[in-house]
């Protein structure tokens, strides 16, 4: 009897997991982290200007845009949906903020109203929430497929941005001190302890999202509804409310990304954010989230965003053509989806 009881732990090796399978699983689950290490190592070898603190901080400020979009996209994908409108929402939010910073012309009173910066930020975030709310209501209550609903919002938001600007760009958004509308460039150019404000904003929102997913009832509801919506609904999860909420949060994240990008450029154009929704989806997939919903985390998504950002900036630094950058980015996305299929497919067997 003693020999048998001692043999049980050893017998766990024959339960189907070999060292090779364990290594494969480790590589699959940590692929975003390992990919980031490889990217840093390769570009540091190819360019002496890559592996510097200043360059990393500059690249991180670029990643902040994709990272903010990816956080909202992660919430939607965890719910089993997709949000194709985030790039256009980013562009619309930037244009809306630029419109407010330029001043609101009230012709009946013959005055131009200049809003303080905090009001511009709040109104812009509210606009992003409204876009997300429309998407969520269409999908949750009217049962419009997420792909169709958000594709329509993509065109509507982009069209409104073009109409607001007549296809032009709002420039010089830094404001004028005598009008009390300065400070818009603070997000893009200021630093705290030498860290760009945009990166700090990304870190704060990522931490808040991580807490939301891991420590709150909403996070449990989100994973449950994304994994099996019908079972979650029968268990008392407010499935429709969760669905609407994730699209609202996605719209808010896109609006904040629009504020950060416009602040970095001190200008706002109606075409800003074009195809950024694909980059956000790529970051989430590279980070290990399942497109079918219910699987993924904020840590992986942030690593995915840094993989995309550091790869793109590295290719620029070594002088690779922008056309080849698109090819490399597409190849990375396809590879990430393939690895996701291998990871989650093997678990299901």
Entry summary:
This protein has 15 helices and 4 strands. The protein is mainly alpha-helical.
Tags for this model:
349 residues; two-stranded antiparallel sheet; mainly alpha; two-stranded antiparallel ribbon
Instruction: Calculate Rg over CA atoms.
Output: 23 Å
Which overall shape is indicated by the principal axes computed on the Cα atoms?
globular
Structural class: mainly alpha
User: What's the β-strand tally?
Assistant: 4
Query: Overall pLDDT, averaged?
Result: 88
Task: Summarize the amount of helix as a percent range.
Answer: over 70%
Number of DSSP helices? 15
Strand order of the largest sheet: 1-2
Distance between the termini: 34 Å
* Series of H and E elements: HHHHHEEHHHEEHHHHHHH
| Major beta sheet summary | 2 strands, antiparallel
Uncertain runs: 1-15
Indicate the proportion of strand residues: under 5%
Question: What would you say this structure looks like, in words?
Answer:
The structure is a single chain. The protein has 15 helices and four strands. The protein is an all-alpha fold and 349 residues long. Helix 5 packs parallel to helix 7 and helix 13 crosses helix 14. The protein is globular, with a radius of gyration of 23 Å. The N terminus is likely disordered.
């Amino acid at each position: 009897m003693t020999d048998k009881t001692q043999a049980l732990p050893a017998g766990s090796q024959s339960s189907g997991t070999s060292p090779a399978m364990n290594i494969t699983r480790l590589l699959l689950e940590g692929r975003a982290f390992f990919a980031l290490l490889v990217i840093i190592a390769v570009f540091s070898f190819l360019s002496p200007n890559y592996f510097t603190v200043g360059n990393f901080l500059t690249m991180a400020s670029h990643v902040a845009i994709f990272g903010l979009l990816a956080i909202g996209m992660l919430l939607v994908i965890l719910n089993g949906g997709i949000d194709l409108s985030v790039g256009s929402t980013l562009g619309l939010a930037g244009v809306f903020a630029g419109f407010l910073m330029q001043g609101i012309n009230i012709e009946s009173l013959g005055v131009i109203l200049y809003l303080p910066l905090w009001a511009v930020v709040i109104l812009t975030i509210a606009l992003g929430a409204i876009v997300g709310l429309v998407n969520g209501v269409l999908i949750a209550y009217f049962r419009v497929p997420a792909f169709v609903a958000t594709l329509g919002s993509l065109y509507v938001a982009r069209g409104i941005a073009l109409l607001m600007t007549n296809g032009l760009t709002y420039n010089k958004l830094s404001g004028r001190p005598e009008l009390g509308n300065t400070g818009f460039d603070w997000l893009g150019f200021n630093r705290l302890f030498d860290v760009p404000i945009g990166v700090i904003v990304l870190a704060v929102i990522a931490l808040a999202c991580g807490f939301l997913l891991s420590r709150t009832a909403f996070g449990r509801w989100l994973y449950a509804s994304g994994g099996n919506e019908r079972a979650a609904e029968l268990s008392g999860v407010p499935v429709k409310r969760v669905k609407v909420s994730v699209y609202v949060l996605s719209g808010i994240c896109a609006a904040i990304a629009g504020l950060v990008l416009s602040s970095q450029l001190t200008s706002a154009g109606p075409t800003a954010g074009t195809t950024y929704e694909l980059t956000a989806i790529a970051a989430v997939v590279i980070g290990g989230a399942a497109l079918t919903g219910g699987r993924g985390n904020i840590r992986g998504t942030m690593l995915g965003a840094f993989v995309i950002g550091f790869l793109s900036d590295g290719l620029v630094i070594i002088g690779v053509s922008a056309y080849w950058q698109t090819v490399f980015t597409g190849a990375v996305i396809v590879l990430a989806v393939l690895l996701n299929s291998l990871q989650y497919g093997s678990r299901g067997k």
